[in-house]
Amino acid sequence: MIRTFLTLAFLATWCLVPGAFAAGDAPALEKQQWPFQGLRGSYSKDQLLRGYTVFTNACMACHSIKYVGHRDMMRAGFTEAEVQALAKNLDMSIDQKLLTAQDDQTAIETFGKVPPDLSLINKARAGLADYTFALLMGYSEDPELIHHSFPKGLPEGAHYNKAFPGHAIAMPNPLTGPDLVTYHDGTPATVEQMAKDVTVFLQWTAEPERVERQHMGLYVLIYLVLFTLLAYVTKRAIWKDVKGH
Ligand code: HEC
After folding, report:
1. 51 exposed, middle or buried (CB, 10 Å; 0-12, 13-18, 19+)?
2. Residues near 34 by Cβ (< 8 Å), separated by ≥ 6?
């Protein structure tokens, strides 16, 4: 009897605990449709350039992308002249990485911490690209919402964010309103559009080799098809003679 009770109690705990975690502080993320997802996923040069524009104008004051520089953008289909022009706009050489001018000491004095390098951020957080997007869209000044999580008020210097675990983030909302940037292709720069584009750019920085890998995959396929055809033709030619006897 006691054993049955213990087993039931154990099972009940086992079933309930994951539910308890799910209801905890990690907010559910909305799944987005990303153009880079799936077997045929890819990056459009226009969207990468839009994302780059958002990053350099609205993020790079605080964040670096230490693994990627302008020259790397040639791997995504930009020409040397194009990346030269982009780098020149920022007074950089194409071999310099996209480093912030803000030094760590100033960051700590201002925010209490150093903003993380964003090169790999889309792979470093649960929720991946969906998280980065939700974070950028997740700021709110709604007093009720804030009071619900922080009955005694937000911690000093923190900002309320729905997607950030714990909801108190040291980063001020970087996308405060539309038209923070002007896009080269005339796309209206709504907050959502800027959040999407910069998230796509950060996905690319996290895997710049993917575009090449996809091209490589295509070449391998073409090679295999040609090779199979050649093998077939050769086989026919050889066996024609054998059968002739
Ligand atoms: C004014 C400085 C500043 C700007 C501008 C800024 N950030 Fe941040 N960012 C921070 C700080 C500080 C943190 C650390 C926040 C924390 O851990 O509380 C941070 C953290 C992050 C994180 C990591 C969150 C996590 O889960 O740890 C991401 C992603 C991010 N920023 C993206 C961006 C993007 C994208 C932009 C541009 C659209 C941007 N930031 C602009 C200061 C900034």
Report:
1. buried
2. 41, 129, 199, 200, 203
Residue found under tokens 């009955």? 151
pTM: 0.82
pLDDT above 70 as % of the chain: 88
> 106 to each of 71, 102, 112, 113, how far by Cα in Å?
29, 7, 9, 9
Rounded distance, CA 122 to CA 133, Å?
10
> How far is ligand 1, taken at its centre, from the CA of residue 216, in Å?
34
User: Ligand 1 centre and the CA of 174: distance in Å?
Assistant: 8
- Residue whose Cα lies nearest atom 37 of ligand 1: it is 59
Q: At 159, phi and psi to the nearest 5?
A: -125, 145
Between CA 143 and CA 141 the distance in angstroms is 6
Q: Which atom of ligand 1 is nearest to the CA of 125?
A: 26
Structure-derived torsion over alpha carbons of residues 196, 168, 162, 58, reported in degrees to the nearest 10? -20
Report the separation in Å between the CA atom of 60 and the middle of ligand 1, taken as the mean of its atom positions: 10
What residues are in contact with ligand 1 under a 6 Å CB criterion?
A: 54, 58-59, 61-63, 111, 113, 115-116, 118, 121, 125, 132, 135-136, 169-172, 174-175, 198
Nearest CA to ligand 1 atom 34: 59
Question: What element of type H or E holds 83?
Answer: helix 80-89
Q: Is 67:120 a contact under the CB 8 Å cutoff?
A: yes
**Ligand 1 centroid to residue 115 C-alpha, Å:** 6
- Residues 116-159: pLDDT tens digits? 999 999 999 999 999 999 999 999 999 999 999 999 999 999 99
Q: Give the chain's mean pLDDT.
A: 89
